[in-house]
Amino acid sequence: MSTVPDCYYRVSVKALILNETRDKFLICEEESGVWELPGGGLEWGATPQEDLPREIQEEMGLTVTKVADHPAYFITAQTLNRGVWIVNILYEAEVEHLNFTPSDECVNLAFVSKDDIQEMKVFPTIKKLAEMFDPARHR
After folding, report:
1. N or C: which end of the chain has fewer CB within 10 A?
2. Pick from 133, 135, 100, 125: which is nearest to 40 by CA?
3. What average pLDDT does range 42-56 have in this prediction?
4. How far apart are CA 136 and CA 74, in angstroms?
C-alpha cells in the first residue's frame, strides 16, 4: 500500500455477503491467520459496483452476481499493524456460489455473528461491523 497522509483515509469497498437466514455475514481468513471482510481498496476512478466484483474475483475466485446501489455500513478504524486510519464502505453483495479458490488473501471462509468473533483474530473493522450489524435491516 502506498503512503497515505495523516489527513486522509485509505478507502476500501467491502462485500456484506449474508447467509441464507441473513443473520450472519461472511468473512475470510488471510494467510496470516487474521480474518477480514471480502473486498479491497477502491481503484482510482472506479465505482464500488465495478471494483468490488474485481476484488472478490482476484482474492477468492468467486463471481459476484449483485452489488447493492447504496452502502449498508460505513466503518472507520485503525489498521492492526501500522495504526493507519482506514475507511471500509460495505455494500450488500451476492456471489454465484461459495466454492472459493484459496489465495494468500483468503484461505478460509466463515459466516459469523457478533458472538462468533469473540475468540477469533479479526481486523478492527469486523469488530465494529459486529457491533453495528442488525439482521432486521437485511430482511
Report:
1. C
2. 125
3. 94
4. 17
